[in-house]
């Protein structure tokens, strides 16, 4: 099939590349000319494992092209996928300015029948808004709208697309349903067909539920700390129950990233507008906000009366999770300035996110190696569970440090092993070892 993907960010680019790899002919459109020129030269704007190679393969084989001209992009496409950003506005509501702009451009260039599919995460009712904008601009209604929310995760986005666990089709016609089924045929996935509004809601409900799981286990972790239990074992014991499941029961410093924080907020606004006030989601948010701050308290406890002022602390991990360079709503963005305000000298290391981090944390001091960051530091703060950190040589790290203190926001190590090596080790939901 000929398809057009509008927006070449984490979702649009990965989807475009993966659909082309399955044999579809894909044109990716972005308003950002520099991004498009780079993509034409196989320079990828994001870090996503395997993406560069797959992009090159499909481009070379003639199934994938890039343009900043939407009119060229949608000409000849049977399906148009909208994958532009829907960031949070200041009041938490989803900002639909990019969606509206795309809808207008599609309307201006719509000459033959197409299915216009929204992959972006959008509030309930946005599909109808898109339909109205397109038909008003085009002056006709020879098109169908559909909602096909995206569930890929950054860091494993290609695998998540190739092995998608389900596809949700929010449709208004059998024709659109047939076309979406044909588009997804190569993925052999479970398909849920519903109306547009239900598909839009499904995405928010899924993300809010995952965020709830994270905040829930973090609350349990905090209770474990207060009562001498071990959250890792609690989570293991809970996770074997198939009704609960193991995924998303890793206690830590809470969720960040471009989706959960903004989508939980947007869901609250959807509730407000619909006249229903959600009760669980605000609690999830409040636990999450506090969770990352607990790390600073742990650091304070480690230094006791000496206080934090003047201490040199190595922060390991800037991105909100491993295998990505996405810095949106990463805990590091809050924590590093807070530490600096307390007079801490912070030196950071992240395997891939440092340059993007510098765009959002002005004062950031960094090194290009893990061992460079820990050298002469008086404590380590672990914020991201990169494999490189799990694999670090703890004996060598101890030698490099001025003081053997590790505050681990991701529970990477066994506390008893850490005690044997001689660390002061505090993690989440487990006893401190000294
Ligand atoms: P992003 O910010 O990485 O990319 C958006 C792209 O859209 C940018 O390249 C931007 O230049 C382009 N764009 C903006 N306006 C445009 C226009 N008028 N015409 C053409 N291109 C335009 O966003 P993202 O992270 O890929 O997210 C996209 C959507 O998918 C959001 O709604 C998000 O909530 C949702 N989503 C994201 C993820 C994720 O992990 N990032 C996962 C699932 C769903």
Automatic annotation (TrEMBL):
A GO BP annotation: polysaccharide biosynthetic process
ATP-binding as UniProt keyword: no
Pathway recorded for this protein: Nucleotide-sugar biosynthesis; UDP-alpha-D-glucuronate biosynthesis; UDP-alpha-D-glucuronate from UDP-alpha-D-glucose: step 1/1
Residues holding NAD(+): 30, 35, 86, 121, 154, 262, 328
Binding site for substrate: 151-154, 203, 248-252, 256, 321
EC category name: oxidoreductase
EC number: 1.1.1.22
SMART domains listed in its UniProt record: UDPG_MGDP_dh_C
Catalytic activity: UDP-alpha-D-glucose + 2 NAD(+) + H2O = UDP-alpha-D-glucuronate + 2 NADH + 3 H(+)
Active-site residues from the entry: 259
Keyword DNA-binding found: no
Keywords: NAD, Oxidoreductase
Sequence ranges assigned to domain UDP-glucose/GDP-mannose dehydrogenase C-terminal in this UniProt record: 314-415
InterPro entries named among the record's database cross-references: 6-PGluconate_DH-like_C_sf, NAD(P)-bd_dom_sf, UDP-Glc/GDP-Man, UDP-Glc/GDP-Man_DH_C, UDP-Glc/GDP-Man_DH_C_sf, UDP-Glc/GDP-Man_DH_dimer, UDP-Glc/GDP-Man_DH_N, UDPglc_DH_bac
MF terms (GO), sorted A to Z: NAD binding; UDP-glucose 6-dehydrogenase activity
Similarity comment text for this entry: Belongs to the UDP-glucose/GDP-mannose dehydrogenase family.
Known function: Catalyzes the conversion of UDP-glucose into UDP-glucuronate, one of the precursors of teichuronic acid.
PANTHER family: UDP-GLUCOSE 6-DEHYDROGENASE TUAD
The protein, known as: UDP-glucose 6-dehydrogenase
Organism: Halalkalibacter akibai (strain ATCC 43226 / DSM 21942 / CIP 109018 / JCM 9157 / 1139)
């Amino acid at each position: 099939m000929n398809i057009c993907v509008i927006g070449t960010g984490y979702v649009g680019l990965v989807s475009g590349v993966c659909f082309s790899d399955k044999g579809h002919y894909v044109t990716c459109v972005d308003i950002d000319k520099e991004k498009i020129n780079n993509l034409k030269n196989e320079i990828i704007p994001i870090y996503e494992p395997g993406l560069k190679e797959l992009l090159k393969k499909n481009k070379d084989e003639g199934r994938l092209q890039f343009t900043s001209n939407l009119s060229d992009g949608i000409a000849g496409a049977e399906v148009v996928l909208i994958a532009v950003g829907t960031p949070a506005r200041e009041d938490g509501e989803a900002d639909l300015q990019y969606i509206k702009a795309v809808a207008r451009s599609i309307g201006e260039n719509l000459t033959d029948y197409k299915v216009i599919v929204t992959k972006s995460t959008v509030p309930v009712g946005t599909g109808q808004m898109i339909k109205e904008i397109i038909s008003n601009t085009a002056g006709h209604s020879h098109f169908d709208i559909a909602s096909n929310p995206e569930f890929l995760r950054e860091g494993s986005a290609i695998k998540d697309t190739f092995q998608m666990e389900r596809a949700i089709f929010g449709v208004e016609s059998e024709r659109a349903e047939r076309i979406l089924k044909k588009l997804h045929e190569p993925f052999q996935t479970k398909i849920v067909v519903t109306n547009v509004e239900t598909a839009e809601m499904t995405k928010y409900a899924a993300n809010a539920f995952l965020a709830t799981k994270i905040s829930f286990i973090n609350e349990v972790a905090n209770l474990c700390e207060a009562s001498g239990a071990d959250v890792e074992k609690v989570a293991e014991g809970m996770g074997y129950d198939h009704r609960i499941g193991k995924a998303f029961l890793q206690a830590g410093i809470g969720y960040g990233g471009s989706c959960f924080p903004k989508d939980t907020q947007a869901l609250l606004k959807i509730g407000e507008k619909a006249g229903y006030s959600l009760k669980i989601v605000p609690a999830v948010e409040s636990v999450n906000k506090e969770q990352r701050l607990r790390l600073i308290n742990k650091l304070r406890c480690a230094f006791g009366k000496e206080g934090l002022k003047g201490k040199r602390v190595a922060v390991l991990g800037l991105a909100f999770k491993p295998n990505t360079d996405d810095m949106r709503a990463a805990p590091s963005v809050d924590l590093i300035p807070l530490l600096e305000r307390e007079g801490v000298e912070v030196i950071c290391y992240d395997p891939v996110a440092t340059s993007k981090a510098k765009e959002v944390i002005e004062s950031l001091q960094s090194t290009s190696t893990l061992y460079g960051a820990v050298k002469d530091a008086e404590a380590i703060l672990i914020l991201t569970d990169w494999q490189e950190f799990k694999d670090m040589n703890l004996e060598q790290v101890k030698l490099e440090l001025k003081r053997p203190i590790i505050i681990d926001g991701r529970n990477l190590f066994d506390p008893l092993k850490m005690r044997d090596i001689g660390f002061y080790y505090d993690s989440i939901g487990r006893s401190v070892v000294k």
